[in-house]
């Protein structure tokens, strides 16, 4: 009998295990792959993520490695106009967004966990529940025949979550767009300032941001090419298609970044999201079972809030379960439904709004350069809506003061 079983050793799964550990709760993390996966190469963590990382006790291990992003430059590919966006808070708040290596974040989280708390090559095949001393216990069936019992089961198993499907959550839907993400390496240094460069055109959005003086994280999103699915496992083909076709008219500096890509970190993936109303009205928990991260709220990357919100989930979930554990001296199964319900209600509306904001942001920025869309994007989105979004990302998920 395990106290807590977490399915998935991604950002949400590892962060949740760390949050629970700070309360004295041991969690077993099940990961289907053979090691930590870092698909996507890098990600941008906004202020809300750093607040969560501070609560988890690891922000000091990552922040010194990556400089804050202060400005962004957005180039309209049709008109050549360049708009600059400041990421510095009006109150002088020094905690700004930073782009970090995804593997560095995962390792920093995993390093906080006891040895053998992550069990790799562990594929979940089925879930059932049974009554045990007046409360619900999860029965987890693994592909190798192992059966695990848990007082709490948390699905952090990504967009196509087995746990979310068991809860009855509606499947994520395809946004109609795909994203290529890569890591460019310049052994002699790239010589660029630590600013975000973005390029917008009809159905396209591209950009890059330096991670350090030798590496640059870059992305390209577009309405999905018909043969996109055929390129998933062919990084050389992906790079060639971006340079020779989809981004051939982008500035030479962008093409040079793509040319320097580390092929082992290059990925193509369709952008999926869950309708926000399915999050608001859906079953995000049942008895002692719930979900977090992409398993709960997959969203498009247009606000860079997927990983950030997963870290928030971990702190909130860890706080609620941790309080119950400390008050009772152990995890009491019959209290878990109420405890998990509090977590769900704290997160439901926030993540639904992030999903909607991310989708709307992507739609506005890639919808073309007609006068109507230009007015909507430049006069309304960047001047008003974007400022609201920035304030929304300064959310404080709270501490883990047990």
UniProtKB/TrEMBL annotation:
Q: Name one GO molecular function term.
A: monooxygenase activity
What is stated as this protein's family in its record? Belongs to the 3-hydroxybenzoate 6-hydroxylase family.
Q: Which UniProt keywords apply?
A: Monooxygenase, Oxidoreductase
The root-end lineage is: Eukaryota, Viridiplantae, Streptophyta, Embryophyta, Tracheophyta
Q: Which PANTHER family match?
A: FAD/NAD(P)-BINDING OXIDOREDUCTASE FAMILY PROTEIN, OS04G0423100 PROTEIN
Where does the FAD-binding domain start and stop, copy by copy?
3-322
The protein depicted here goes by the name: FAD-binding domain-containing protein
Checking Pfam families in the record gives:
FAD_binding_3
Which InterPro entries does its entry note?
FAD-bd (IPR002938), FAD/NAD-bd_sf (IPR036188), MOase (IPR044560)
Domain of life where this protein originates: Eukaryota
